[in-house]
Amino acid sequence: MVEPVPDPPARSDEIAGAVLEVVRALAAELHPRRALAPLTLDSTLERDLGLDSLARVELLARLERASGVRLPESLLLSAETPRDLWRALAAAGRAPALAPETAVAPALAAAMAAPETADTLWAVMDWHVQAHPDRPHIFLLTESGAEEEIRYGTLAREAEAIAAGLQARGLRPGQTVAIMLPTGRDYFTSFFGVLAAGAIPVPIYPPVRASQIEDHLRRHARILANAQAVALITVPEAKPLAQLLRLLLPNLAWITTTTDLAAAGAALTRPLLRDSDIALLQYTSGSTGHPKCVILTHANLLANIRAMGAAVQVGPRDVFVSWMPLYHDMGLIGAWLGSLYYGMPLVVMSPLTFLARPERWLWAMHRHRATLSGAPNFGYELCLRRITDADIHGLDLSAWRFAFNGAEPVSPDTLRRFSARFAPCGFKPEAMAPVYGLAECAVGLSFPPPGRRPVIDRVQREALMRAGRAVPAVPEDATALEFANCGQPLPGHELRVVDATGHEIGEREEGRLEFRGPSATSGYFHNPEATRRLFHDGWLDSGDLAYLAGGELYITGRVKDVIIRAGRNIYPHELEEAVGNVAGIRKGCVAVFGTRNHVSATEKLVVLAETRETEQAARARLRAAVNTAGLDLIGAPPDDVVLAPPRTVLKTSSGKVRRAASRELYERGNLGAPPAAVWRQVARLLWSGAIPQLRRTLRTAAQLAFAAYTWILFWLLAPFVWLIVVAVPRPAWARGCIRFAARWFIRFSGTPLRVHGLERLPPTPCVLVANHASYIDGIVLAAALPGSYSFVAKREFIGSFVARVFLRRLGAEFVERFEPSGGVEDTRTLVAAARTGRALVFFPEGTFTRTPGLRPFRLGAFVTAAQAGVPLVPVALRGTRAILRDGQWFPRCGAVMLTIGAPFTPASTDWQAALKLRDAARAHILRHCGEPDLAGEAPRP
Known about the structure:
Blueprint: H1 12-30, H2 53-67, H3 75-78, H4 82-92, H5 105-111, H6 121-131, E1 136-141, E2 147-151, H7 152-168, E3 176-180, H8 185-196, E4 200-203, H9 213-219, H10 221-227, E5 229-234, H11 242-248, E6 254-256, H12 258-262, E7 278-283, E8 293-297, H13 298-312, E9 320-322, H14 329-342, E10 346-348, H15 351-356, H16 359-368, E11 372-375, H17 377-386, E12 402-405, H18 412-421, E13 432-434, E14 446-447, E15 456-459, H19 461-467, E16 481-484, E17 488-489, E18 494-498, E19 511-516, H20 528-534, E20 535-536, E21 539-549, E22 552-558, E23 563-565, E24 568-570, H21 572-580, E25 585-597, E26 602-611, H22 616-634, E27 640-644, H23 659-668, H24 678-727, H25 731-748, E28 753-756, E29 767-770, H26 777-784, E30 790-794, H27 801-809, E31 813-815, H28 820-835, E32 840-842, H29 860-868, E33 872-878, H30 880-883, E34 896-900, H31 911-929
């Protein structure tokens, strides 16, 4: 890092813009299809812009040619950002000369795209207030259809007034303030007002009806107690209940409104906020009985917003329209805070407006030429059911480029029908995007790439239900199950699927989904037991069942009985208790469960309740009472209320309700049927439970046995091979020994290896490049490749005696991965080796990770091939990551396929020839490696 010095004043704006333009042009040339992070003077050359050591050499050469200034060679090592380059050029008072058609303004505009250096939400707000205080931020759609405009500066001033009012009442930094407000101006100002006071906002959902405020607050007492809220900002109608809540909650000091707080007229003392401070307590939806409150810091939220923005390629020219409630993470973080960060206009309407007239959502998209919006699956279904052709005459949705579908199970049928229904309105099928996320990861976790049509996986029903294997089904299979592809984990985040033993399983195997990343919560607020259950070896348990295929995510169900309906989690025990309190219903004899609604393509909420009432009038009153209980508790009545005779609801021996078994009876239509003989029930129960458990046990035992056998085989072989390689006098003999040992190991470990394209290997010296996915890649290449090939290894291996001696005896070349000056010298050495007839094998990714996907390619292999004038041969490895991935020492049985492509001959020795070789090799490897493109260097095949 260069020593920090003041930014030079000489022609600073002109020079800064010109440097950014040269950097931008090179980055775009290197990554023409990749969405780069917003370019600023403080963007990192390596991480943000993808410039490796050789690319930085090219960058310095271009700056020198354009400016006529000879830059010090030390910049190769010290320059980490464009600012470092700017200082060197500004000291000489010279700006790089740009082509006539190139303007500096675009580079400077790009630098204003987002507050990349902000570390808290208030820092984001401050950045926008300083940059453009009068720029519109929010367009709030009222029930009458009018629009209320909220500007950045106005929002900040009103929030600071509320913060001052909170401080005047004695609020201290770090305390919690609950916000129970509908979508509106007061919500936005309250949220940032709490943050400005240094406190922690706790969003909770408002009552459905004003007449239900008292019951609503009583149900929320546990949330307020768990959060230790000292204040509640709410609607004026709730203020008379302050005394009641103070009796229930001694810590709750006051109930107030935004009007009261702003009228205080106090002065604000801005506390110091850090990225590690809690920015939000997000209660899992529907969590009133046993509250679970997700802790999210400023760092968590900003990491998630930035990762989602990178995945969707968000910019300030985007426009977001949202009706999602602001107490829900998708509406609060995904829509509002994401729009705030990227400086794009946010058009907001009330959820009730959408539910009453869903066409208003689409017309808002039309009027504002919105590019981004989303909804749970039921929202798209509501549009399909409620919107008529007359409602959308003249509607234009052609600007909509990313339609999020998440927050509840995604129906493939809904994806198809919505795209077809609104195609005449300009809606593009590739805009529909099934996504996956959860509150424990802020909001987003896995997104598909923009511009790709939804990918639907059809799998064999029996294979998945009985063996947990997602085996692709043939098109003629009418019983196949369909699952929507939710894409790849967000940048910086990781996914894995584990079995019942906690071991990671292979592709297309169903198990529990776990994740980790910078957006992941540190746990649940004041709930150590739930926090303990959340973590497993540094990974967080999502509570969902899933499988991975091609590095992409498919959600198959939920581990627990939580029902997701209309974007909210409904916990059955809460509704069961409420229904059990209805006079005429047998208390403790109620089962609540979800089942597939084939009409609405969403989850159907069923209440099964026992009663002794037989008269029709009495039963009608009971149904009405159950519907009212559902409406009051979850905001909507159940889809089906089944009143059954006593002993219908199935229970365990300890008296717990068996919801899954009751759902099965409901789906089979067997509710109320006379029970089978006891011995039949016992036999059926034993059989249904023993067979799956036996199958799982046998599968786990087989996996353990294979792993143990493989390691025994390896350690019996490895020492002897090492000794032979070290002892033989010629590298060619050593490579022959390695080839024989690798083939023997692969054969006796039971790993099928198929090699395609051996005939394409040129007889002349060449550079061979392969993707890197596993520890066993070197073994596979050694077994598959004939002739004499020298591997290019990272210089870190020199520090290990065993690896150093072994690789040197094989004739390996060592290269420096991080120092630019070392990379230049290594390239000269490799070019000389290739010109003397050596065949070199590179892993251009430089390393591998456990996350499936092709990482960015470093340029050394391609520059070597171009400057040496030798053919470049791409090799795609498939299947090795599933056998043994990074950080895992539990090998699994699997097949490997190696596909050798046709050699590419460099057209010249210059920089452009190396880039063409890289792009051609990457395209071949992507076609055959079976994994997604993590760098966006080429379109997915």
